[in-house]
């Protein structure tokens, strides 16, 4: 079923309900990203809540998975929204989201292509482009000028201006640009998005603060695939708790290992 762009749909999130791997679309099982343990077996992921949070160690495939989902939604795997391409796109040529998306199937109810794919590593490219476009094609009022703010302030302002409408929003480690205090502000933004009822969030994070968001589906990505997990069961929480219990001893032990 097709919908006109920007037409509001009177259904609550989630809109992307399921993604799964279609083996017949894979040309080389040994090539990346299909060699990832996540994709070795019959990969199938369902979304039954408006907010899904994925945690796991570096190299497990979290970013690649988010890139693939972003491509399915019609976003550029380097970051941005539908039809948007960052000014400097050369760094994204090594990204694998597009290859992954070509082998994925998706179930939507209904198909939503409004929203944004946020990446900390491409934020400045995105913000610079938007600042330039606002100055070149003013729509009334002062231009956004995201880059005049600190990284964290610019990030939050950027999110605030784009997360108030219906859509699917994908965040790849947003805490990279946020101090602990700013992460608390980001939690409040997530709550506002949830209260709207028309925002689906899919996020990968290393931050126990963000992964503790209430009523979200929390999944841990390991070499065995995705599994439900609680915050207290994650290595991120356990390490942070050990540090908070004894910062000096924790750091000393880590240095001596």
UniProtKB/TrEMBL annotation:
Cellular component per GO, a single term: plasma membrane
Domain of life: Bacteria
Subcellular localization: Cell membrane
Broad class of where this protein is predominantly found: membrane
Keywords carried by this UniProt record: Cell membrane, Ion transport, Iron, Iron transport, Membrane, Transport
Ranges in a coiled coil: none
GO molecular function: ATP binding; ATP hydrolysis activity
Domain AAA+ ATPase: 48-236
GO biological process: double-strand break repair; iron ion transport
Membrane topology annotation: Peripheral membrane protein
InterPro entries in UniProt: AAA+_ATPase, ATPase_AAA_core, P-loop_NTPase, Rad50/SbcC_AAA, Siderophore_ABC-ATPase
Stored PANTHER family: IRON(3+)-HYDROXAMATE IMPORT ATP-BINDING PROTEIN FHUC (PTHR42771:SF2)
Name of this chain's protein: AAA family ATPase
Classification lineage: Bacteria, Pseudomonadati, Pseudomonadota, Alphaproteobacteria, Hyphomicrobiales
């Amino acid at each position: 079923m097709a919908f006109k762009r920007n037409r509001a749909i009177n259904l609550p999130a989630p809109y992307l309900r399921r993604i799964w791997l279609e083996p017949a679309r894979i040309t080389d099982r040994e090539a990346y990203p299909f060699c990832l343990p996540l994709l070795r077996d019959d990969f199938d992921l369902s979304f039954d809540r408006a907010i899904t949070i994925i945690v796991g160690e570096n190299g497990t495939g979290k970013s690649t998975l988010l890139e693939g989902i972003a491509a399915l939604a019609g976003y550029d795997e380097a970051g941005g929204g539908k039809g948007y391409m960052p000014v400097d796109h050369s760094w994204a040529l090594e990204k694998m989201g597009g290859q992954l998306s070509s082998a994925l199937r998706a179930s939507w109810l209904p198909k939503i292509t409004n929203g944004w794919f946020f990446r900390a590593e491409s934020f400045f490219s995105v913000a610079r482009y938007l600042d330039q476009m606002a100055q070149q094609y003013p729509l009334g009022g002062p231009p956004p000028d995201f880059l005049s703010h600190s990284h964290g302030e610019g990030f939050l302002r950027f999110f605030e201006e784009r997360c108030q409408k219906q859509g699917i929003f994908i965040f790849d480690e947003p805490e990279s640009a946020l101090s602990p205090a700013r992460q608390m502000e980001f939690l409040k933004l997530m709550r506002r998005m949830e209260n709207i009822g028309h925002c689906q969030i899919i996020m990968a994070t290393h931050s126990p603060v963000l992964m503790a968001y209430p009523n979200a589906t929390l999944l841990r990505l390991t070499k065995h695939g995705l599994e439900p997990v609680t915050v207290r069961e994650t290595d991120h929480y356990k390490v942070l708790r050990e540090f908070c219990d004894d910062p000096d001893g924790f750091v000393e032990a880590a240095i001596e290992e």
